[in-house]
Inverse folding.
């Protein structure tokens, strides 16, 4: 599963990738083609490269080397198509040969910088393309330009010399055509000579793109002060977790984002809280942190220990199927069905489900939530499920958003200020402890007194009954 397949599925992932200052198209392609990693060793290898690059920033000399390499990478062109042409033994054009020469020179320059500044830890050894440079740059000028040099053919050299001294236009035309034919012969010879090196050129292009991506990651992680996640065995633990895009939006408004601590063991966790309690954002932040980790990124948390999974399945009730005409309930149930199918197949999942069955009647809604928790519990699936339902009898771990804090209210309370009166801390609870804050919040907002009186009377009668 490539990152490009996740970019519109995981909230905040596009925001993160857009914030990366990647200099080259090859680096951007490398980002989008990153594979979803489940092997801890492979994930740790990527993260270790980031660790090494960050550690080099504390040494002035090595930091200078990294800056020089970053500047060089601004000149990296994505010539994957040209390399494929070369590998198919097709005769290259002058533009093709120029692109190959330019990549080979750039590769050698960056190899030299890595050796000179002792930066070997930021990349696997780049391939040696010095032979390609010597073939395409026989005059050893390292100029970003390609020309069919006289050195490639004695016959061509002689024809060009004749052309300079010939005065008869008809003869000049004959010499010129003969020279063009000889140039075609040289292009064919060069293409045949370089074709066996196509694999090395492709390796160099991919590694330089990966290096561009690595340096962009380092800049972003340092700037945002993200933390290096550790691979965990049993329980995922996220301390001081934030959603970076929401954090940015709130910051632009002068508001703050309250970081959240949460652990996710190998069992479902039921989370309750009022509508404004940030449950949806929490699930999105968890999904983003898990996804970033499995693509070798640091994560937006103060501390993170994460268990790798085969897939993250996030249901927020806003599936594409809804926009395609399927009812919200129908789309949601089909997604829950997909989760159940994955569980049945033995897929290691992180399931994140926001208020399932919220649009159906409470009796059946509670049955659906209970059935989902029971299924996930039997298969020991890591899951966070949020709900408003208060009679879920299935044994499971339960958390509650601490919720509305009346002591934080500044009257008159405006609707857009409600979030400032909420404590988003998660507390472990036992039993069906659901929030009962809605009517009191409505009263503080100044909702019609007669309506509030009727609501409270109805609630009182219901409790008595």
């Amino acid at each position: 599963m490539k990152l490009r397949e996740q970019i519109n599925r995981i909230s905040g992932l596009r925001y993160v990738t857009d914030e990366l200052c990647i200099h080259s198209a090859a680096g951007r392609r490398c980002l989008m083609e990153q594979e979803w990693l489940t092997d801890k060793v492979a994930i740790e290898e990527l993260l270790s490269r980031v660790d090494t690059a960050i550690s080099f920033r504390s040494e002035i000399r090595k930091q200078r080397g990294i800056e020089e390499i970053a500047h060089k990478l601004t000149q990296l062109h994505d010539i994957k198509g040209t390399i494929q042409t070369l590998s198919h033994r097709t005769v290259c054009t002058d533009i093709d040969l120029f692109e190959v020469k330019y990549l080979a020179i750039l590769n050698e320059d960056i190899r030299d910088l890595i050796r000179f500044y002792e930066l070997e830890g930021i990349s696997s050894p780049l391939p040696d393309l010095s032979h390609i440079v010597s073939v395409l740059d026989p005059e050893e000028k390292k100029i970003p330009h390609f020309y069919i040099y006289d050195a490639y053919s004695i016959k061509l050299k002689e024809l060009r010399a004749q052309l300079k001294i010939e005065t008869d236009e008809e003869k000049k035309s004959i010499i010129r055509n003969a020279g063009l034919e000889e140039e075609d012969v040289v292009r064919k010879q060069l293409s045949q000579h370089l074709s066996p090196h196509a694999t090395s050129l492709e390796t160099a292009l991919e590694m330089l793109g990966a290096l561009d991506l690595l340096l962009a990651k380092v800049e972003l992680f340092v700037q945002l002060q993200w933390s290096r996640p550790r691979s965990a065995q049993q329980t995922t633990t996220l301390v001081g977790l934030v959603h970076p895009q929401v954090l940015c939006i709130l910051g632009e408004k002068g508001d703050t984002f309250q970081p959240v601590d949460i652990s996710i063991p190998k069992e479902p966790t039921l989370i309750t809280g009022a509508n404004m309690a940030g449950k949806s954002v929490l699930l999105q932040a968890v999904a983003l942190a898990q996804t970033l980790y499995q693509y070798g990124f640091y994560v937006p948390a103060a501390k993170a220990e994460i268990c790798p999974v085969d897939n993250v399945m996030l249901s927020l009730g806003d599936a594409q199927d809804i926009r395609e005409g399927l009812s919200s309930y129908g789309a949601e149930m089909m997604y829950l069905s997909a989760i159940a199918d994955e569980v049945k197949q033995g897929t290691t999942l992180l399931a994140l489900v926001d208020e399932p069955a919220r649009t159906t009647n409470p009796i059946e809604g509670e049955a659906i939530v209970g059935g989902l928790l029971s299924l996930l519990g039997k298969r020991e699936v890591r899951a966070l499920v949020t709900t408003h339902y208060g009679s879920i009898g299935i044994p499971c771990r339960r958390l509650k958003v601490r919720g509305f804090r009346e002591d934080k209210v500044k009257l008159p309370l405006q609707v857009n200020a409600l979030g400032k009166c909420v404590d988003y801390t998660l507390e472990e609870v036992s039993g069906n402890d659901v929030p009962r804050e809605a009517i009191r919040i409505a009263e503080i907002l100044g909702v019609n007194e007669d309506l509030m009186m009727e609501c409270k009377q109805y609630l009182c009668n219901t409790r008595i009954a």
Observations:
- DSSP finds 18 helices and ten strands in the chain.
- Confidence is low (pLDDT under 50) at residues 319-325.
